[in-house]
Design brief:
single chain, mainly alpha, 0% strand
Length: 218
Amino acid sequence: MANTSNSKVTEEKIIGWFMDTVLEHEMIPKSIYKFCKENKIKEEEFYKFFGSFDGLQHAIWDKFFENTLAVMLKNEAYDGMTNEEKMLTFFYTFFESLTLNRSYVLFMLKEHKNKMEKIGQLKGLRNHIKDFASELIEERNSEKNLKILKHSPQLFSEGAWLQFLFLLKFWMDDNSPDFEKTDIAIEKSVTTIFQVFESAPLEKIIDFGKFLYKENFA
């Protein structure tokens, strides 16, 4: 979609043009030069925000996370939620955001046949989700006086990331109306992981998460 406006170029506008271009042409643009020419902007305007198309793709996933967090924090009830409720709210909100951009997400994740390239664009998102999960478990740990009752934020955050990958693949394959099966999968998986979390070594949860990832996202 060509840029016919003389308004200021922003990060959000470039992301929008890129997503439109990908969907309209069913391919990633061949060069930044052609992309900028088609959208009637100068290359230096693109480079103010992104160093490459790879960087732009990573930024889109970062935006999904940032928008999710912004929506969650606007909810006045958020601060009073339990950790389990916060995790549920995060996944529900994040996948609502993905659904609004489903055509783009499906194309980008299916475009890369190589598993490492597919996951590579999610590198920044992985850090965000792990940080979010670590904060949740650190909050819970702060409420516990005995060290033996405390859990490793590193292990819990890795489990949350593997859980996200499982849900992402589930959502990609979900053909139910309004993706209601994904909502059920989110609820059951989060409830289960918190129940198991309190009664089983987290290393076992990680092993189970790796199995789900291998079976559903490889």
